[in-house]
Amino acid sequence: MRAAVFLDRDGVINVRPQGRYVTRAEEFEFLPGVLPALRRLTRSGQQIFVVSNQSGVGRKVMSRRALTGVTRKMLRGIERSGGKIRAVYYCTHAPRLACACRKPRTGLLLKAARRWRLDLARSSVIGDDTVDVAMGRAAGCRTVLVLSGKQTRASAKKLPVRPDKIAADLSAAVRWILQEASE
User: Fold this and answer.
1) Would you call 164 a catalytic residue per the annotation?
2) How far apart are the first and last CA of the chain?
3) Which residue among the candidates 8, 129, 132, 169 is catalytic per the annotation?
4) Eight-class DSSP state of 31
5) 3-class DSSP state for residue 54?
6) What pLDDT, on the 0 to 100 scale, is given for residue 156?
7) Is the predicted pLDDT of residue 183 greater than 80, yes or no?
8) Domains and CATH numbers, the chain
9) Whether this model's pTM surpasses 0.90
10) DSSP 3-state of 78
């Protein structure tokens, strides 16, 4: 069984629009430093997955087709820069449905772990919100909270679920994960 790195999307990989969703490919914008960080993680041999709540589909704010377009743009950009995302897992349900795949529940991680034979105890979750940290903790993963999305250093210190590491952005999170893997 292999270790993996699970990434949230908005606020970790791309700019998180204030108070709304990325609803079209044209709105998708990589955060600074993300592409080199993903290339470095890929070259290290890590299996990389995206796990993200995308309830805009369930709320009828965007279509599945639009989400597919956003995902294609993201994957093309990452692949062009030398990175490789093994698979993308989204929860597209509206929050009121209380499904097993909506973070902080672990359904997305468990689905990926079964499909790809992953060892969650040796894996890491990188996110920008408490739901990412809670999901990772519940699944037995190491957790990294990045400050490039929803949280500030001050708010991160007050979270009810503490991450293993607080990092400025994905680049810093990747450095920490690779350092931990080498020790």
Assistant:
1) no
2) 19
3) 8
4) P
5) coil
6) 87
7) no
8) 4-182 (3.40.50.1000)
9) yes
10) helix
